[in-house]
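Hypothesis: this fold can be encoded by more than one sequence.
Test: take the structure tokens below, design a sequence, compare later.
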């Protein structure tokens, strides 16, 4: 039996990258995983990868409160509450201070900050006592890389949410923690390297002490740990999964 046998999990942004890898891992540990994202075809392919018996896809955008209601109505219909929530979905676009526009800031904070807040708030009635809530932050919240200003600030807010919500929900035994991935080999990384940032893919590699980019599965391993009883005494923490990128 897996560490999450019979549990119910939600992974936002579960169609690709870290979200998909985490959904695969949680399902392998025995959880039934609800994944959400904006593209139906991507979600359908993800369900096939995870295994249709272990996953349910719900198309939606975390910045749309009606979509979040629809997601949680689907979870509620299963009748087992919610044991694991990985609030992973985010958007990423990049601009220096000089280049930043009102639209850039609004979109970044509307999805990453507001969307994450309501993802967790609307899950509260479903969360079982002792549940695990995992928020996906980023090493970019700490390192001051040029052109990442609004994105980094949004991820710093996620780290702050983890501390506050851990304190607010601890009386129900609900553990809230954050993960801060470093440079991970996802479709989003290619978009960053192709965009208006000072880094190419090879330059990102040079910044990682282990000398390589991380794999989504390596982040998923940490998410699965935080989802399980193996992390029962970890609360309000931020676990770096970065190959040492932000540690030296």
């Amino acid at each position: 039996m897996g560490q999450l046998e019979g549990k119910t999990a939600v992974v936002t942004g579960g169609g690709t990258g870290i979200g998909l890898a985490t959904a695969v891992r949680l399902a392998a540990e025995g959880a039934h995983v609800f994944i959400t994202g904006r593209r139906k075809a991507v979600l359908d392919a993800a369900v096939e990868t995870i295994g249709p018996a272990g996953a349910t896809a719900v198309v939606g955008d975390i910045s749309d409160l009606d979509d979040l209601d629809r997601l949680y109505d689907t979870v509620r219909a299963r009748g087992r509450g919610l044991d694991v929530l990985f609030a992973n979905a985010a958007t990423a676009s990049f601009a220096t201070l000089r280049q930043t526009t009102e639209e850039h800031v609004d979109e970044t904070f509307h999805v990453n900050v507001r969307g994450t807040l309501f993802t967790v708030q609307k899950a509260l009635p479903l969360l079982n006592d002792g549940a695990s809530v995992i928020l996906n932050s980023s090493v970019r919240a700490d390192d001051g890389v040029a052109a990442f200003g609004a994105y980094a600030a949004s991820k710093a807010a996620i780290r702050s949410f983890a501390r506050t919500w851990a304190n607010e929900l601890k009386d129900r035994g609900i553990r809230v923690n954050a993960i801060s991935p470093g440079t991970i080999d996802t479709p989003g990384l290619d978009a960053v390297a192709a965009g208006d940032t000072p880094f190419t893919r090879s330059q990102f590699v040079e910044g990682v002490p282990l000398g390589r980019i991380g794999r989504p599965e390596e982040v998923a391993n940490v998410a699965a740990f935080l989802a399980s009883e193996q992390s029962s005494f970890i609360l309000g923490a931020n676990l770096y999964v970065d190959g040492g990128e932000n540690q030296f």
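The two ends are 39 Å apart (CA to CA). The mean pLDDT is 95.
Hypothesis status: open.
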